[in-house]
Amino acid sequence: MRVSIEVNGTAVAGEVPDRTLLVHYLRDTAGLTGTNIGCDTTSCGACTVLLDGESVKSCTVLAAQADGHEVTTVEGLAGGSADDRLHPVQRAFREQHGLQCGFCTPGMMLATVSLLRENPKPSRDEVRTALEGNLCRCTGYHNIVNAVMDASGQEVAR
Ligand code: FES
Ligand code: FES
Questions:
Q1: Is the CB of 40 under 6 A from ligand 1?
Q2: Does the N terminus or the C terminus of the chain have fewer Cβ atoms within 10 A?
Q3: Within this chain, do residues 98 and 123 fall inside the same structural domain, yes or no?
């Protein structure tokens, strides 16, 4: 089937098998590999993107379901390549060392954008609850939670 999705403000159209998952469409048809595949079973959140502004795990959404809709991936967050064009969430992850190995980071950042849109000043507990579906296998969540607090203009924990 033919699918056309507005990805990061640009229409991306392609002919794909009906069962193509959105994550594969983004990586293979749109050529945007910042959306990672960690588990393929809706567990890890590495594939999180925004679909019409709502965070979704793109390994559980068919590309056909996103046909005619808007998707934002991590590549769409920054306004440009210079540091000062980073999205505030990207800047905070960098400054708070929330990147760690970085495999989970794109999903974490998209989930954070979604959280802060709904709850601009979350508590640390609310941040942890909101990121429950995003797994990080590295050193822990301390710096990630700090990054979200920083992005929301709140104090970080040392
Ligand atoms: S790859 Fe989608 S949740 Fe893990
Ligand atoms: S930084 Fe998240 S899995 Fe490594």
A1: yes
A2: C
A3: yes
